[in-house]
Structures are given as C-alpha cells and as structure tokens.
Design brief:
mainly alpha
C-alpha cells in the first residue's frame, strides 16, 4: 500500500457526490471503485489497462471472501417467497382479525409482530404491512400510522439483532486484525445504537398512548377516525400479486421462521466451536462466522419448509422451487450493492490507505476526537438520506471510521461504529428513495410521500436525542464501557421521554381536534 496523500479520499468523495446527484447507488459505487484503481495504477506507474484488471481482481477477491453472505441472502430470499406462496401470512391475518378488541391492542400487536420478524427488513416490511393491514383497518387506524410502525420496527430490529441480514452485512465491513471480531464489535455496539433503541421505545409509546401523536401524524389519525381508512397507494407488488395457497395455516408462517432462528443460533454455536473447543456461550458467539452460520440456518429452514408444505400438498414441488427461484432473484440487487461496497472499502483501505490518511488529518487538525461519534452519526444520516440505502453507507463509512479510531483512540471504535449504524438507519428511514420506505408504504397501502412526511418528525425526534447522547458518550468514554453506556443511555431516554410528553402539546397538528373525543378505541367484532 502506497501513501498517495489527499488522493486517497477521492474514491469515497466520488461515490458520495455521484450518489447525491444521480440517486444511483450501483453506478456511484462503480465510479468510486474505478477512480480508486486509476489513482493506484498511476501512482505505481502501471499501465492504465491494469486499473480494470485490478478492479475485477478486487471484486472477485471480496466476493470470494464473503460468499457465505451472498448465499445467506439468496436462501433468505427463497425462504421468504416460499412462505408467502404457502399462504401463512394470509392465515395469520385471518386469525388475528377476531382477537384484538381495541386500537391499543391492534397497534401493540402490529409492533410486536414486526419485532418478531427481525431476520430481514424486506421480509419484515412485506409481511407486517400485508398481514396487519386488515387488523388495523377495523379500528380506523390510519395507513400512515401503520406504515410508520412497519418501517421503524423493520430496520431497528434488523440492525440490533445479531441474527439478521443487516448484522451479517455490518460484520463483513468491519476491518480484520483489530481488537474485536466482527461479531464481538457488533454485540458491543448494539446497546450503544441509541437511534434504534429509541425508535423501538417510541413505536410502543405511540401504540399505548391515546394522544401521543403530533404533527402530520396527528392529522392523519384524526382524519382516519373521522372518515375511515381508505387506500392511498397502489398496494400490489410482485409479492402481493403472487397467487398464494388457500390451504395455508398460521404455523406455515411460524414454523419456518422459528426453524430459521433455532438453526441459526445452533449453527453460530457450532461454527464458534462451542461443542468442539470447550468454549462457553459468549466465547462461541464471539468467535463465530455469522454469515456462514446464517447460511446454514437458512438451508435448514428451507428443508423444514419443504417437508412442511410438500407432503401436505400446500403447493406442488414445481411451484415450491419456482417461488424459491423468484425469491433468490429478489436478492440480486442487494448482493450487487454488497459486492461493490466491499470492493470500494478494499480499494480505500488496502490500496490507498484512506483511513490512515484521514486519521492523520484528524490528528493534525485538532478536532476533538470526542466529537467523532456525533459527527459520524450526522454524516451517515446525510449520506443514507441522499442515497436511500443503509448498506451502501455502511460500506463507505465503517472502514474509515473504525480505522480512524484504531489509529487515534481505540476506545472510541465501538462507540463510533454504533453511531455510523444509527445514522445510516435514520437517513434510510427518512429518504423517499429508500427501498425499505417504499416497501413499507406499499405493503401498508399508504401513499409514499404521506408516509415520508408523517414519519420524518418522529425520526428526527429520536435522532436529535441520539446526537446528544453520542456527545455525552464521546466525552465520558474514558470512564469505561460499564460507566459511559448506562450514563449516555440514561440521558438519551430522559431526553426522549421529555420530548414525547411535550411535542404533542406544542405541535398537535392542524385540523378539527373535536374528533379526538370520538370513542373509537374499541369496536364490536
């Protein structure tokens, strides 16, 4: 690796600027990779044609190193499609309609159901919105409120759960050779992801409080109470148009998901050497290779689904594998983005030394290192908002931020990693070009911009409190993880609770407040 100075920051800048201008993540990442390899070959006096061969070599190497992640995504996509085809989601919706007696129960059940589907945000959005929409409609709960719950819970749960496609993606971006493995770093960072934790807290807060809404969401809720719920968007997509089996039962949804969870946990322990090396649970989870374990878990869940559906003639074998193929195809876009993100990370880290250069600049600039977590969250949020993707933001920022911390303040690495994750999720959830936002609004039957407009004030509330918490954590990090974690968490939840009590009074939303008095909290079913 040659020191190329200021040129080392060109690839991420190219990728970020093009992403902001074009809104095309794949194109932007490709241009960033090519700009980096061109700089590399010119600085090493190689032929220009070698920039293309170097680019291809990097992509092949990174794809080979992370092939288990790609396999897991393919298996997960296939499993989601097979479960949908079997009619398990529809069966759950029919079962749930007659079991909830109030708005509060319906909202809480929606959030709880979404919390259980933490394996993948796409799966969560599609399933939660489609399954719970008939339930929330019975209580005149606005589609805006439903899409908010679906969107927020999907990303927040996926980024906190160590068994998810997001977790496996994050672990693959963490530079090797540091003090912590990918799993260890993720587990330490999860309790510091203030935005994700606060999002879950706020969702359930809004579910149980009758008059907790504020801003545009309060207007939407009043309108739904007064006029009833109407579709505000075309709700069909490839998944919802799929002809599903009428023989599906609730356990056709529950059993494959439970199998995926159980097999994934067992596989993590197995890969981590729990039974072979006499290690304890914590050591086994810390030493495991998460993508490999998740791939094993996905394969096991598919086998369970096969023997659950085919012998009962839920679907013919040909339709089972057709659904599986369609699910695998749905993950091609995510796999391409991941491969390109891994590649640009390798170019910056291994070929140009971007992280080392930025670390040197930060050291010489005199910017307090304690501000890095808060700054990292803000930058990640802006980048994810502009690009509409959390995963692309992970790939660009995580290696740089972690490398800076390892060079200047190793004790800040986990905290800064959590800040990048928090900012990426926030930016993704307020971006109208985010695939998760689009899926949430579509599956919930809510017009896209109505979903975005009503969700932004809620997301900003949590994000603002999170930035303050990262400032507190950054300045108290020297006291140790056991001290600054509860201290910053306490400050965060104190601020968030205060904001949730004050904002409904300050910003009640325009419209006729008299409809609030309508007693629609319960209906006869």
């Amino acid at each position: 690796m040659q020191d190329v100075g200021v040129w080392s920051i060109v690839p991420p800048i190219v990728a970020i600027l093009l992403a902001v201008v074009t809104k095309e993540v794949i194109f932007s990442l490709v241009c960033g990779i090519l700009s980096g390899t061109i700089i590399y070959v010119l600085c090493n006096q190689l032929s220009l044609i070698q920039c293309f061969s170097t680019t291809v070599d990097i992509m092949i190497a990174k794809l080979g190193e992370n092939i288990a992640m790609i396999v897991f995504l393919a298996l997960l996509g296939g499993l989601v499609a097979v479960i949908t085809k079997a009619g398990g989601s529809n069966a759950y919706a029919a079962w749930a309609r007659g079991r909830f007696k109030s708005r509060r129960a319906a909202l809480t059940a929606t959030a709880s159901f979404s919390a259980c589907l933490f394996l993948d945000d796409y799966f969560n959005c599609i399933t939660s919105g489609t399954v719970m929409r008939p339930v929330t409609d019975r209580f005149n709960i606005s589609r805006e409120k439903l899409s908010y719950i679906v969107d927020m819970m999907a990303a927040a749960m996926a980024i906190l759960a160590p068994i998810s496609s997001w977790a496996a993606s994050v672990m693959s971006y963490i530079p090797q050779g540091g003090g912590l493995t990918g799993m260890q770093a993720f587990l330490h960072a999860a309790p510091l992801n203030f935005y994700a934790l606060g999002t879950i807290f706020m969702v359930f807060w809004m579910c149980v409080r009758k008059k907790g809404d504020f801003g545009p969401m309060a207007e939407a809720e009043r309108r739904a109470r007064r006029e009833g719920v109407h579709d505000t968007a075309e709700t069909e997509n490839e998944i919802t148009r799929m002809e599903v089996s009428s023989k599906g039962r609730v356990w056709d949804l529950a059993i494959p998901i439970a199998a995926l969870l159980i097999f994934s946990v067992l596989a993590m322990l197995y890969v981590g050497g729990y039974w072979n090396e006499n290690s304890n649970l914590v050591q086994a989870f810390g030493a495991t290779d998460a993508p490999t374990a998740l791939a094993l878990g996905g394969a096991g869940a598919l086998i369970v689904a096969f023997f659950l559906f085919i012998p009962r003639k839920i679907m013919p074998m040909s339709e089972f594998f057709k659904a599986f193929n369609d699910g695998v195809k749905s993950m091609v876009g995510a796999s391409v983005i991941l491969t390109l993100a891994w590649s640009i990370s390798s170019v910056c880290r291994d070929y140009l030394g971007t992280g080392d250069y930025v670390a040197r600049i930060v050291r010489e600039s005199g910017i307090p290192i304690h501000l890095l977590p808060a700054i990292a969250m803000i930058i990640a949020g802006l980048l994810a908002f502009a690009t509409g993707t959390s995963w692309g933001t992970f790939g660009i920022l995580i290696p740089i931020v972690v490398t800076i911390c390892e060079a200047l303040a190793p004790e800040m690495a986990v905290l800064s990693l959590s800040a990048v994750l928090a900012g990426s999720v926030f930016g993704d959830q307020v971006s109208p070009i985010s695939d998760v936002v689009i899926l949430s609004s579509t599956s919930s039957g809510c017009e896209l911009m109505r979903h975005v407009v009503t969700q932004i004030p809620y997301a900003l509330t949590v994000a603002s409190c999170a930035v303050v918490a990262y400032l507190v954590a950054g300045f108290t990090v020297g006291l140790g993880y056991e001290v600054y974690l509860p201290l910053s968490l306490g400050v965060f939840f104190l601020l968030l609770t205060g904001a949730l009590l004050i904002l409904p009074r300050v910003f009640p939303g325009s419209g006729d407040g008299a409809v609030e008095t309508a007693d629609l909290d319960s209906v006869q079913l």
